[in-house]
């Protein structure tokens, strides 16, 4: 058996079509959607990733501003940049890109991102709202997993999903998105031993730990669907996921590739979220709209 | 085999000792800790529960104010009560008691409880902070489960815990507390069928759904530890949990009773949290303390 490849490209295309509709609606309001990415590193891989977000935004008609504070930026400087951008009417989406300089913790700073502009779901308030089922942006990577599964019509309700990884960026928000879709979810991590105890019966396995080859065919139930969130750069420069693709493909029915899977969808979601934030932030008050609709044309 | 009873009483006693220490420290600062419970119902069971909280607070030297807005209160009235209490220097803990009047949703109102006074972890911001590992009060019922397990020295790290119930009040915050203690956690719910698929291998099963007798011996692995969060009032007035105690006790190694288990601990935690909030809210700034410690006596 060789597993079906769940490519990210057609999923991203569908999301870009949605973005296009939003950009047109915003243009009608005279609004140019704006995304700001705050960067404080000279890590080449990170800067490459930020440029890829900027390119995707640009292609979609979303203005992307990279606020580069340099690898020597301090926590206060970053916090005040986020506060200023939160108040800036021309900015509708804000991302704080990691890694940050040594000693600067992202998890304290993200509270300075206005929840309405928190397009990568980093502020704890966004995570809390997601948990209780209120409106909030989910972290783009977590949502990308669900978008791929839904695009390929893989049912979630009543299924057992094993999420390997408990990060605040992927594992924990993904759990909320899966529970909302009536999946039964097991959250595994480095202390879950043996790992196959928690993955071998699951219909869907999501690997989101950041360890190359952690999940192999031996961890899977025949016919399982596998989503690989890992993006690990090997010493030789190769990009690989958390799943060992050869053995997994022998057992799984479907598998997302790395690269070309989750990452492709994540970038498209960041741009889509920015247009959704812009629509919400520039919405006319309900009373004004009600008045308009009562005015005879 | 008959399961050991995991009584709440000794756990509550230990928490009350901690509360006593806090109250003494607050007295030293000239602070009387204050808890406010906002009520908008004439449901007799609820009012009885609120009186039991007030009694527990009173015994511990914590002033409890019941703000009874009546069964006809509207959302705005409740929101402004919560906002006023959040600004009141004599109030250190705030609880919004459910049920609320028909058409009034608690989940929108709890955002008006200051996170620093949110002693029952109801504000989405508290849930988000709990998720990312920042300081926040956990919902008292969720924390009560963990307090009982830790009191009876039941290990959590590396164990499989199956949580039946995905509410924002118990299941979801409990999951965070368990993950932080390195348990592997499965969250089950009404769409998890058959339920025993997700409970029969777990070392610990927590039932938090609100359905009498949902979990029976047939759902359990021999020797499992079972925590019953359910508090269901039957037509004949009896209070029963979500676990069928006779069959469960035949298979489990330990089981919390209802009543006398989780509920007993929950009330003690609400009072303890109020004293912890009072300590944090009335703490002298670090600089002032540093200065003091340098002053020779």
Descriptive account of the structure:
The structure is a homodimer of 297-residue chains. Chain A is an alpha/beta fold. The first copy, chain A, folds into two domains: 21-114, Leucine Dehydrogenase, chain A, domain 1 (Rossmann fold, 3-Layer(aba) Sandwich), CATH 3.40.50; 140-262, 3-Layer(aba) Sandwich (Rossmann fold), CATH 3.40.50. Chain A contains eleven helices and eleven strands. Chain A has helices at residues 9-28, 44-60, 75-87, 106-109, 124-132, 140-151, 171-180, 196-199, 245-251, 262-281, 286-294, and strands at residues 4-5, 34-39, 63-68, 93-96, 160-164, 184-188, 204-207, 225-228, 232-233, 239-240, 254-255. Chain A has a six-stranded parallel β-sheet with strand order 1-11-8-7-5-6, with helices on both faces. In chain A, strands 3-2-4 form a three-stranded parallel β-sheet, sandwiched between helices. Chain A has a two-stranded antiparallel ribbon with strand order 9-10. In chain A, strand 9 (232-233) and strand 10 (239-240) form a beta hairpin. In chain A, helix 6 packs across helix 10. Residues 288-297 of chain A have low confidence and may be disordered. Chains A and B meet through helix 5, helix 7 and strand 6 of A and helix 5, helix 7 and strand 6 of B. Chains A, B: Belongs to the tetrahydrofolate dehydrogenase/cyclohydrolase family. Chains A, B: Pathway: One-carbon metabolism; tetrahydrofolate interconversion. Chains A, B: Residues 139-279 form the Tetrahydrofolate dehydrogenase/cyclohydrolase NAD(P)-binding domain. Chains A, B: GO terms for molecular function: methenyltetrahydrofolate cyclohydrolase activity; methylenetetrahydrofolate dehydrogenase (NADP+) activity. Chains A, B: One of its GO terms (cellular component) is cytosol.
